[in-house]
From TrEMBL:
Residues 1-18 have a biased composition (Basic residues). Residues 308-320 have a biased composition (Acidic residues). This is F-box domain-containing protein. Transmembrane segments: none annotated. InterPro entries: F-box-like_dom_sf, F-box_dom, Leu-rich_rpt_Cys-con_subtyp, LRR_dom_sf. Gene3D superfamilies: 1.20.1280.50, Ribonuclease Inhibitor. It comes from Oryza glaberrima.
Amino acid sequence: MPSSSSRRRRRRGRRRKKKEEEARDWADGLPLDAILAIFHKLGHADILMAADQVCATWRRATRDEPALWRRITVRGTEALSARINRGGLACAAVRRSAGQCEAFCSEYAGDDGFLMYLAEQASCLKSLRLISCLGVSNEGIEEATKEFPLLEELELSFCYNVTHEAYAAIGATCPQLKRFRLSKRSFYDSGGIRWKNNDDACGISKMHGLRSLQLFANNLTNEGLSTILDNCPNLEFLDIRHCFNIDMGDDSLRAKCSRIKMLRPPDDSTDDYDFDVYTPRRLPISPGFVRYYSVYSDPEYSMYSDEWTSEEFDDDDDDYSGPSRYEEDLDKYDNVLPRCMRTFLK
């Protein structure tokens, strides 16, 4: 009968063999082009938090191939960003680009501090897309874009702390800018003058080299759009969907728009719009009562609802504040992720 000591030795031997098998570089010999082709199918966050840890060959490829990080995308949801340090992921991705980053797209990952870091590390940046980055301010974006003389594309959708003053400054510091995108969640209208605002249009009109402009659910009027058209003579693509203060029946405006090669008017279809589309918020005021109109686009309802109940209001609120379906999975990351990657968890 085997002694207890021999059984322990066999167990230790099996464990050692298992560790050696786990440590084996199974991708050794796989062409680099094939590895990079795999990585290009993944998001950059996935590469940093998972693929980077598969084996030594994959790790070398992620760290030693700046071309993999030439076009960086770090996107997600608000609930996900509450648990994962997406700003840290973005910095790690930019650092691995070794100064070769030409395009950066960020959602819920970016503030003024990160923009300063990006400006230091990516002076050849040509495309910058910031989506729902509430930590970005006028001062931050203005200072950063001074370091991007080659910038051709800029998006500031749902970055509500960046205003028209910054748009004007960017127009002056980025003479190569050709594409600008500014989306808002939904169109607001109370029937009052305060909801007809051309400040954004005045700032954008300083971007004289624009060829493509998308303004979704903006409150500009015919006057503001005319200012843009007068000051951006090279404009070829114009998307003003859900900009319902604009009256395309105006003869003067239609004449100015005639040179636009691709025009998406306010009432055009939003089927190809890549963000959630909300029904316009209409708030007409009557004595002693304000009718609140439905926020969400829903074929089961008419576009405007004259009344609402507390239950309906609570249902809408639940859509924003309900628990994230990702939370359960996120709790597992603490145990699954290698220690070196746990820095990306908040």
